[in-house]
Amino acid sequence: MKWRLFFQRDSKFSSKLLRLHHTNGILFFILMITGFLLISSFFYTAFPTIRYQLKIFHIWIGLLSIVPLLFYLPKMKDHIKLKQGKGTFNLYFIIGILAILTLSGLVLTFQKQFPPMIRSVALAMHDITFWIGIPYIVYHALTRSRSFRAMEKRRKRVEIINQEDTYLEDYNPVYNRKVFLRVLSGFIITIAFSPMIIKGLKPYFSKMEEVTKAVEGHYFAKLPSTTFAKPKGEGMQGSFRYYTITKKPKLTKENWSLTIDGLVDNKIKYNWNQFMNLQRDVHVSDFHCVTGWSVYNITLEGIPLKRFLQEAGVNKEAKYVKFYSADEVYTDCLTLDEALLDDIMVAVSIDGELISHDNGGPVRLMVPQMLAYKSVKWLNRIEIIEDEHLGYWVEAGYEQHPWVKES
Ligand SMILES: Nc1nc2c(c(=O)[nH]1)N[C@H]1C(S)=C(S)[C@@H](COP(=O)(O)O)O[C@H]1N2
Ligand SMILES: [Mo]
Question: How far away, in angstroms, is 199 Cα from ligand 1 center?
């Protein structure tokens, strides 16, 4: 990279372009690295609080990266002229990718202004262009690096000495060193990235059955005679992306229990069998994560939260309800009014199957009115309290009342 260019004042058009290109390159490199970390479930688990700051950083760099693009766009015509038809496909491709990444990034940044459907589309576009863009950018950076070019040229010196070789190279592109090196590195990059790409794009291709069937590794018995034969919601659309900031807690039929305590008349504790004997309701709900993905039409079976609160008898001083996870780290909190809303479920089944361990089973909270971080997985305690508690993600910076705007 020609660093000196950044400090030159009035340079030629081509140097200006190069400078824009480098600025953009640096910004997109930062976006790529932070994007990787934001996607990585390892990072989610290992550094959940930094993740929030990182997301804000990613958004700011993203916004900043629009500036060089805005400078470039009016000059694009001249640039194409300058190229005289060479590599214009390349140019349109890159501009297309950047445009999609930028627009979808903007929608995700201001997601509150958009209905969930548009948000999901934006997330899908952001994901897909990220996974197409990254190997492409790596290829681009590699094949344009000095050492790679030197490697391409090495053969040429030999050509001058050996005339026959030149003949072969000119008319037989298959043996052309340059083409060969480029195809080879393109191939290696594609192979190297493909496991990540497949994993990254899987949510868009996997059928919902795969997700709900994941009761495997579950320590609980099958649901005793479910309330319905077929999921009331006709099967959910979309798939969950499993998130956890901790290791999954090891829960069994024997060690799981649910406690309702705090400012209540009667403290209650259910073991698995007692819990499964409670009258269950069915609700069809949608679920929206703050990162942009949604699952629609989830048939939830469980006990409405409000019933537990009535059962336990909430005291007058009570103002908030705090939820604990068996992972012993994750918590969240609702106001008492919010907690009494219909549709909030202490759920045991999703689409007729016990909630899988990954999905927060045996029992998880489902608060469809708010973003998914309110829906505590591996729920084992509900405490009625007087002072507000800031849950895990709220402590990290997210809103306490993330109402979902329905489309
Ligand atoms: N115990 C616990 N509950 C949790 C989380 C978590 O990390 N731990 N993540 C929250 C977030 S941010 C989301 S999007 C949903 C994800 O639910 P899923 O993993 O079943 O898709 O769970 C929420 N509840
Ligand atoms: Mo989330």
Answer: 19
pLDDT digits (tens, 9 = 90+) for 311-340: 999 999 999 999 999 999 999 999 999 999
> Cα of 240 to ligand 2 centre, how many Å?
10
What is the 3-state secondary structure of 19-67? HHHHHHHHHHHHHHHHHHHHHCHHHHHHCHHHHHHHHHHHHHHHHHHHH
Task: Please tell me the number of the ligand nearest to residue 393's CA.
Answer: 1
Contact 364, 355 (CB under 8 A): yes
Pocket test for ligand 1, best of 206, 241, 244 (most atoms within 8 A of CB): 244
Record the tokens describing residue 290, joined without a space: 């703050």
How distant, in Å, are the alpha carbons of 56, 326, 395 from that of 255? 39, 10, 29
Do 290 and 55 form a contact (C-beta atoms < 8 A)?
no
Which ligand gives the minimal distance to the CA of 295?
Answer: 1
Distance 377 CA to ligand 1 centre (A): 6
Distances (CA, A) of 183 to 24, 45, 143, 165, 176: 25, 38, 10, 20, 11
Using one digit for the tens of pLDDT, what is the confidence trace for 198-230? 777 776 665 444 433 333 333 333 454 444 445
- For residues 124 and 153, is the Cβ–Cβ distance under 8 A? no
Rounded Cα gap, residues 227 and 233, in angstroms = 13
Looking up tokens 């990290």, which residue turns up? 396
Structure tokens at 61: 């760099």
Q: Are strands 379-385 and 257-262 parallel, antiparallel or unpaired?
A: parallel
d(CA 182, ligand 2 centre) in Å: 40
Contact predicate 287/354, CB 8 Å: no
Q: Which residues pair with 393 in a beta bridge?
A: none
Instruction: List all residues whose CB is within 6 A of at least one atom of ligand 1.
Output: 240-245, 289, 325, 327, 330, 359-360, 372-373, 375-378
Q: Does this model's pTM top 0.85?
A: no
Ligand lying closest to the C-alpha of residue 241: 1
Three-state DSSP at 205 gives helix
Q: What per-residue string of b and e applies to 81-117 under the rule 16 or more CB within 10 Å gives b?
A: eeeeeeeeeeeeebeebbebbbebbbbbbebeebebe
Residue with tokens 């496909």: 89
